[in-house]
Design goal:
Blueprint lengths: L1 H34 L1 E5 L10 E9 L5 E6 L4 E6 L6 E4 L4 E6 L4 E8 L7 E4 L1 E5 L5 E3 L1 E2 L2 E4 L6 E2 L12 E9 L3 E3 L1 E4 L8 E9 L2 E7 L9 E3 L1 E2 L6 E3 L5 E8 L4 E2 L3 E4 L2 E4 L2 E4 L4 E2 L3 E2 L1 E3 L1
Parallel strand pairs: 1-11
Antiparallel strand pairs: 1-2, 2-7, 3-6, 3-9, 4-7, 5-6, 8-12, 9-10, 13-29, 14-22, 14-25, 14-26, 15-21, 16-19, 16-29, 17-18, 17-22, 18-20, 23-28, 24-25, 26-27
Amino acid sequence: MKTRKTLLTIAGILLLLVVAVSVSTVVTAIATAGSATATRTLPAEPLSKSEFFTVRIEAQGYGTFGKVIETLPEGFTYISSTLDHHQVVVYGSTNTVTFTLIGETSFTYIVSLRYHDIEEGTYAFSGILIDEDKNEYEISGDAEIAVKLAAGQFDTGSPANPYPSIFGMHTGNITPSQTITVQKLYTYPCPGTGGHAETIELYENGTLIANGTWNGYKGDWHNVSLNSVAGTPYVTLLKDHVYSYTIRTGSYPGIIHETSFNATGGTITCTDFTDANGKRYADWIPAIRLE
């Protein structure tokens, strides 16, 4: 009889322990599920068209692994991130990017305003964090970013598909839609390259009016400063006037594969491009900004 009571007592204790462990596990799971958070940080200042910028994501409480799914505004393009490329999947049709997290508590990614038809205004980002139990949490923090086009620029923007690319000599015409004062030439490189312009010459009616030469990979190496033939460190391009350009490039500059292109602030055409191998093309426009 005593043995039976002892067994019943032990069974009861075991049952209580099982219940206690189960309750503890449920409470822990609920606490974990509710503790996952993610925060987005965007640049505070308005962006200029075709500018590259960095987005920061901080995430915690998602477990051993998780996912951040970001949806970018139309006209914005994902470029790269601090995560390994195997942890990133880009869905171009929906402009979403999935980042797989394996213990990371923060990462950044780079975005470009790559399309020439983007307008001034406010653009919204959205995203979710998915924890290891597949629970979803809306990403908090910054959700909107302002785009303000800079005045007095001629800007092709960075092309969505800059390849194929090679250095060589470009000639063509630029017709500004507004009068602008130009001090420098910026050349958009292919992502991850040192694409740049080495020299530029601007002509009006066959007469040289301004030129500039690259100073090498130092300081502000993306830009070439212009000087007018009159000796001023700038040149004024008049609205609706046609100017011819000759630009010699180095490395892998961004290329717009069209014969004519509507840029912000006017149009640009390709008359001829002769690459480093002597091959000639009529639809290679350099991706540039005059400002």
